[in-house]
Design goal:
Blueprint (H helix, E strand, L loop, with lengths): L1 E12 L5 E13 L4 E5 L6 H8 L7 E6 L2 E2 L5 H10 E4 L13 H11 L6 H15 L15 H13 L5 E5 L7 H18 L2 E6 L2 H7 L2 E6 L2 E7 H6 L4 H11 L2
Parallel strand pairs: 3-8, 3-9, 6-7, 7-8
Antiparallel strand pairs: 1-2, 1-4, 4-5, 9-10
Helix pairs in contact: 3-4, 4-5, 5-6
Bound molecules: adenosine-5'-triphosphate.
Adenosine-5'-triphosphate binds next to β1, β2 and α1.
């Protein structure tokens, strides 16, 4: 479903003394339809840069992305728009993704209008109602503003919003790290359930090996812009081959 080959990205920071940061140094991975791949690594190792490139928010230096069998850099502008529908992202700060001046219903409608989903406003509202039910929130939130909802509700709204476009791939970038521990488990169960019901393909980015090992069948361990180890999650967690992976696994088993 999603294949990435030799992705690279550097940034130049500083004004007077320029400094080069090689954020992603040639990573490759593949996720089959309905599969779940985790990318684990410490802060600053380049995880979110990969996600931002996939979502078209950053231009890579080089690399090839195939989505649903199609090479993405060979696409026309209209095909890029279709790709953006197929791949959606859930961010760490859901409240920051909602416009504070718009009601929840209006924020939900927006992507559906842009991508011409459903024929009428009534049809769109009905679809949003169904999605709210699916993610376990009530339509009483429709008329509220982002400051009138909880963090857990905001994240469920963002999941429902991503699903309005009927994506095939969901990129999760630390989707639960800002939530209460009690809500985190509900959210992870919800995402797993949705994956089964809608045959979603997941790319899950996190520094939390415990969450990733529960959610993902396969995992890539990332350090300083490269994948140091890739494989089945169970095998990597129980038999880490690379010193960095061992360090990461040990830091989690201490808790
Ligand atoms: N727009 C940018 N301009 C300059 N440097 C950047 C930019 N975006 C990321 N970087 C740098 O690239 C490196 C990788 O950043 P990235 O956000 O991908 O890491 P991460 O693994 O997702 O970290 P975290 O888990 O803390 O979000 C870091 O050194 C970061 O400072």
């Amino acid at each position: 479903m999603l294949r990435v080959e030799n992705l690279k990205k550097h940034f130049v920071i500083g004004v007077i003394r320029k400094h080069r940061v090689d954020a992603v140094k040639g990573v490759s991975f593949e996720i089959p339809e309905g599969g779940s791949l985790g990318i684990a690594g410490n802060s600053g190792c380049g995880k979110s840069t990969i996600a931002r490139i996939l979502m078209g928010l950053e231009e890579p230096d080089c690399g090839t992305i195939y989505l649903d069998g199609e090479r993405q850099d060979a696409l026309s502008a209209s095909a890029v728009r279709i790709r953006k529908k197929k791949m959606q992202m859930i961010f760490q700060h859901p409240e920051a993704s909602l416009d504070p001046q718009k009601t929840i219903l209006s924020s939900m409608m927006e992507p559906m209008v842009i991508h011409k989903m459903c024929e009428s406003t009534r049809g769109r509202k009905e679809r949003i109602r169904e999605l709210f039910e699916l993610v376990g929130i009530s339509e009483s939130l429709f008329s509220r503003y982002p400051h009138q909802i909880s963090g857990g509700e905001a994240q469920r709204i963002m999941i429902a919003r991503a699903l309005t476009l009927e994506p095939k791939v969901l990129i999760l970038d630390e989707p639960t790290s800002m939530l209460d521990v009690s809500i985190q488990a509900h959210m992870m169960n919800l995402l797993k359930d949705l994956g089964h019901k809608m045959n979603l393909t997941y790319l899950f980015i996190s520094h939390d090996l415990e969450v990733l090992s529960w959610f993902c069948s396969h995992i890539c361990i990332m350090n300083q812009g490269t994948f140091v180890e890739t494989g089945k999650t169970e095998e990597i967690i129980h038999h880490p081959g690379h010193p960095f992976t061992r360090e990461l696994v040990e830091s989690f088993s201490e808790f």
